[in-house]
Design a protein that fits this description.
Layout (H helix, E strand, L loop, with lengths): L2 E5 L6 E5 L7 E5 L6 E5 L4 H4 L4 H22 L1 H6 L3 H7 L1 H14 L8 H13 L5
Antiparallel strand pairs: 1-2, 3-4
């Protein structure tokens, strides 16, 4: 049964869990050392999507984009609530967003990489910038 090793974003301790029961779902992982909790998306690796039908791969790529943007929104929620405009959010988070988009493009199948930036921007508009002028 495939296992996955994840590192705690807070302290770096590595943990292992069985992937199969959670395939296609988000898993809340808690570090045994520092008790930090974070979400892990299981089953959306590029090699896992490459064998899927084009429609399924596209849906999974959209889901991955939304997941990554949601993580950014969660991490910066105080700033986003205080920000008045979309431009203010984009300017403040430009480094994080660039890194997130690079990570996203590395995780989707090669045949979707041409559509990847548009899918990521769609998730930004839908999740991060909603309700901001």
């Amino acid at each position: 049964m495939p296992t996955r090793i994840v590192a705690c974003p807070s302290c770096g301790r590595k943990a292992r869990f069985q992937e199969e029961p959670y395939r296609g779902h988000r898993v809340l992982v808690r570090c045994r050392q520092c008790t930090y909790e974070w979400w892990v998306e299981v089953g959306l690796e590029a090699d896992g999507m490459s064998g899927a039908s084009p429609d399924t791969a596209l849906q999974e790529a959209r889901r991955l984009a939304r997941f990554i943007v949601n993580e950014i929104r969660y991490y910066h929620q105080d700033f986003i609530q205080k920000a008045r405009t979309r431009q203010e959010i984009l300017e403040e988070l430009k480094d994080d967003l660039a890194l997130a988009q690079t990570h996203y493009l590395s995780r989707i199948p090669p045949e979707l990489r041409s559509e990847g930036p548009a899918l990521f921007q769609e998730a930004l508009q839908e999740i991060l910038l909603e309700g901001k002028p």
